[in-house]
From TrEMBL:
Protein name: Alpha-1,4 glucan phosphorylase
Catalytic activity from the UniProt record: [(1->4)-alpha-D-glucosyl](n) + phosphate = [(1->4)-alpha-D-glucosyl](n-1) + alpha-D-glucose 1-phosphate
Similarity comment: Belongs to the glycogen phosphorylase family.
Cofactor(s) needed for function: pyridoxal 5'-phosphate
Region (Disordered) residue spans: 1-23
Organism: Terriglobus aquaticus
Single annotated GO MF: 1,4-alpha-oligoglucan phosphorylase activity
Length: 834
């Protein structure tokens, strides 16, 4: 919420000003061409004939941004005027993807821009490829936040996204000789035309030091005072988030850390030049780089500083805007609904208590009521190693006032639990915000649940498992606080932008209602037996495969067989996502072809993509395994025309936009009970890919929507996995029982698939035969069965096209618009049908 002119009517000159500007910002091809030439001269500072593609991209970016600005200002003015309730989405990650073409799509100026480029003899896609991707996220959680920003604005939900403006985003991935190599992501190298610094919003955040308590001589009440060791300046950078064709523009406010005083002349004059900028260096490290570990907490001090820094800046910003509108602080929760994107910003609960009690001098009870009414907490993972637990020493030294507040929250909470569950000491210990077993820790998930009005998982199964297992005690204490909101993805980027030919085909038969009401895709079912339409459908798929093939040829000099089945697994590399199960299956196919047992295999292209956290050696070995299998089958004359295995480097949002439309088979093969939801599965479905997968996360709901006959199911269910775990799982038994699995594992052990190298994969073979935490051995045979079924049906192109069409037709539920409607209804209490 900008501290706009608080509802004053624009003066005469102003209106003429805006109309004049509006005139300039016309969206015709001519208007865009003129604006392009003007920005090339005025903003880029070059005559157009001397400009390079990057200059041309930047000139285009600036003119598109111009056309967002008016809507941005009118949106803010209407929010202030109507004193609306605002959703604040606090996330340590926003995986936005490139802006240019998305903004053009949402503004409805893509065609005009294309025409303007033709007249200027440029290719718009070529210009767009110049945009450095803002990779301010690791994977699912970060991308979900970006999809939600698009849907909130398209549904006209007053919202602000709050996060960190990392100077370096997710690392760039190079694959060198089958091994991942990381390179720093200099996305800000040439500046960023999509952000605007908001100097009026600068905040100051304290760290370290100690607290002092004094007695208020009048009330005798204790007053807490935090004496920090140092403070850091938080500078806001705002990125406009345009809605789809509704002139709404919400704000993404990302915070950059700067030294209070970036240069200490006194120290400098004493000749300590490095000392003079030490503060600057130290402070700026806070927003320097995104932490790459996904789903494994590192307990690093800097990570906690990042989390507290952006959360404190954001809450202080809300309080500042609240006061600017002269609203009583007691009404804070009526104005702001703050959603915690996992526990990463959950320190915000203690921070709001600090602000309300220490700075606004509101009594503890009232402050707590406001705090609980303000926050909602979304959990995105069940993996124990991903649940954040901060060692007390780190926490207490960085945030001495907050640990006091958390102790007080805990004291009062445990008192309630002791009353609610008398004598149940074990439960009290499990629920305590402070873990006492071994080194003392602050349990951030417990704090998030205790300090929030609502807690939700991100898919039906996940939300059930949260209630039955991870947060069982809390569910039994506060059953009405738990709900589910199944994830969704925005059809604007993941369908309309990713696959214009499919969009055109859908518009042709359905009109355009589906753009903002994806359930309208159901209309496609009328064409499921229309041979002519199915023909068009297949053609569209071949086109998308052709486009991806061209890109792979250009970027990797590898040619793909468009007639082959494109079998795709793209997501972060992790044992529970089981990219190694996929690779072992391919080795099984290899063995069967080599033995002559498998003759008529329809040719397959296996595409893999995804980054491994730099310190996650096992995941890096999984990448090496995939690349080694690719080498093997690609070189072998018996298999090279039947099997192609490719690891496409540097998987990202823009690469995803190329891959999802081209996929035939969508690999969703995680161990049941481990993938909270998955969102890639939804992007594949929308683009007509058929899924092969387990009953895990959102796969279950996808199968419910599309029909079990249009989904290749395999594997143990979550209860079966839990059962086996309890009964004691011996992976070697499955190796013994399955001749194919034994041949594959023995081959791997003996170096048969790796030119005799027996060492590289020894750790993987050992783990899978001895431990196999994710039941790869147990699911191998059933997976191979489902795979061969998929292969058979793929040969029946009519049957396959019907399944493909039905996946798109029944993907309506998985639009992030549906998810946001549910958040508004069940958690944020924002009524949309006004
Ligand atoms: C502390 C390190 C860390 C970093 C990120 C722990 C956990 C995370 C995220 C929660 C991991 C993540 O991205 N989870 C994914 O969230 C998606 C959006 O809800 C889900 O669809 C995926 O199933 C889930 O793995």
């Amino acid at each position: 919420m900008q501290d706009a002119s608080h509802g004053q009517q624009p003066s005469e000159t102003e209106t003429s000003g805006t109309t004049a500007i509006a005139a300039q910002d016309n969206r015709s091809a001519d208007g865009i061409r003129l604006a392009f030439l003007r920005h090339m001269r005025r903003t880029i500072g070059k005559p157009v004939e001397f400009s390079n593609t990057l200059d041309q991209y930047r000139a285009m970016a600036h003119l598109v941004r111009d056309r967002v600005m008016d809507d941005w200002i009118t949106t803010v003015e209407s929010y202030v005027q109507h004193n609306v309730r605002v959703v604040c989405y606090l996330s340590a990650e926003f995986l936005l993807g490139p802006h240019l073409l998305n903004a053009m799509l949402n503004l409805g100026i893509t065609d005009s821009a294309e025409k303007a480029c033709d007249e200027l003899h440029y290719s718009l896609t070529q210009l767009a490829d110049e945009e450095p991707e803002p990779g301010l996220g690791n994977g699912g959680l970060g991308r979900l936040a970006a999809c939600y920003m698009d849907s909130m604005t398209t549904l006209e939900v007053p919202a602000v996204g709050y996060g960190l403006r990392y100077e370096f985003g997710i690392f760039r991935q190079e694959i060198r000789d089958g091994w991942q190599v990381e390179h720093s992501d200099k996305w800000l190298e040439y500046g960023n035309p999509w952000e605007i610094p908001a100097s009026e919003a600068t905040q100051h955040v304290s760290f370290g030091g100690h607290t002092e308590t004094t007695k208020d001589e009048k009330t005798g009440e204790l007053i807490w005072k935090w004496v920090p060791a140092f403070t850091v300046k938080g500078v806001a950078y705002d990125t406009p988030i345009p809605g789809y064709r509704n002139k709404q523009v919400n704000r993404l406010r990302l915070w950059k850390a700067e030294a209070e005083d970036s240069f200490d002349l006194e120290i400098f004059n004493r000749g300590d030049y490095m000392g003079a900028v030490r503060d600057k260096m130290e402070s700026e490290t806070i927003s320097k780089v995104l932490y790459p570990p996904d789903e494994t907490e590192q307990g690093k001090r800097l990570r906690l500083m990042q989390q507290y820094f952006f959360t404190s800046c954001s809450l202080q910003d809300m309080v500042r805007l609240h006061k600017l509108q002269k609203l009583p602080i007691e009404k804070f929760a009526d104005k702001w609904s703050v959603q915690l994107n996992d526990t990463h910003p959950s320190i915000g609960i203690a921070e709001l208590m600090r602000i309300l009690t220490d700075e606004e001098e509101i009594g503890w009870d009232e402050a707590w009521t406001i705090t609980q009414a303000t926050f909602g907490y979304t959990n995105h993972t069940l993996l124990p190693e991903a649940l954040e637990k901060w060692p007390l020493p780190i926490f207490a030294s960085l945030l001495p006032r907050h640990i006091e507040i958390i102790y007080e929250i805990n004291r009062r909470f445990l008192k309630d639990m002791q009353a609610k569950f008398p004598g149940d000491t074990a439960r009290w210990a499990r629920m305590s915000l402070i873990g006492e077993d071994g080194e003392k820790q602050v349990r951030m998930a417990n704090l998030a649940v205790v300090g929030s009005k609502m807690v939700n998982g991100v898919a039906k199964l996940h939300s059930e498992l949260l209630k039955e297992d991870t947060l069982k005690d809390f569910y039994e204490a506060f059953p009405n606080r738990f709900t589910n909101v199944t994830n969704g993805v925005t059809p604007r980027r993941w369908l309309m932008l990713a696959d214009p030919p499919l969009t055109a085909l859908l518009n042709e038969v359905l009109g355009t209602a589906w753009h903002t009401d994806l359930y309208a895709l159901r209309g496609l079912e009328d064409y499921v037996d229309d041979a002519g339409f199915l023909d068009k459908w297949r053609k569209r798929q071949e086109e998308s495969k052709g486009r991806l093939g061209d890109f792979i040829k250009r970027s990797m000099d590898v040619s793909l067989n468009p007639a082959s089945m494109f079998d795709v697994q793209v997501k972060r590399i992790h044992e529970y996502k089981r990219q190694h199960l996929n690779a072992l299956h391919i080795l099984g196919l290899y063995c069967r072809i080599k033995s002559g047992e498998l003759k008529d295999l329809p040719p397959r292209t296996f595409l893999f993509g995804g980054k491994a956290a730099p310190s996650y050696t096992y995941a890096k070995l999984m990448i090496k395994l995939v690349c080694t299998v690719g080498e093997l089958v690609g070189k072998d004359p018996q298999t090279k025309d039947l099997l192609r295995v490719l690891f496409v480097p540097d998987y990202s949002v823009s690469l995803g936009q190329r891959i999802y439309p081209a996929a035939d088979l969508s690999e969703q093969i995680s161990t049941a009970g481990k993938e909270a939801s998955g969102t890639g599965c939804m992007k594949f479905m929308m683009n007509g890919a058929v899924a092969i997968g387990t009953l895990d996360g959102a796969n279950i709901e996808i199968r419910e929507e599309v029909g079990e006959e249009n989904f290749f199911l395999f594997g143990l269910t979550a209860p079966q996995i839990a059962e086996k775990q309890k009964a004691g799982y011996r992976p070697r038994d499955f190796y013994e029982k399955s001749p194919l699995l034994r041949e594959v594992m023995d081959g791997l052990r003996d170096g048969r698939f790796s030119n005799g190298d027996r060492d590289t994969f020894a750790p993987l073979v050992r783990d899978l035969l001895e431990v196999d935490r994710y039941f790869v051995m147990a699911d191998f045979d059933d997976y191979a069965r489902a795979q061969s079924e998929a292969g058979k049906i793929f040969c029946d192109s009519k049957k396959w096209s019907r399944m493909s069409l039905l996946n798109t037709a029944r993907s309506g539920k998985f639009s992030s618009d549906r998810s946001i409607r549910e958040y508004c209804q069940n958690i944020w209490k924002i009524n949309l049908d006004r």
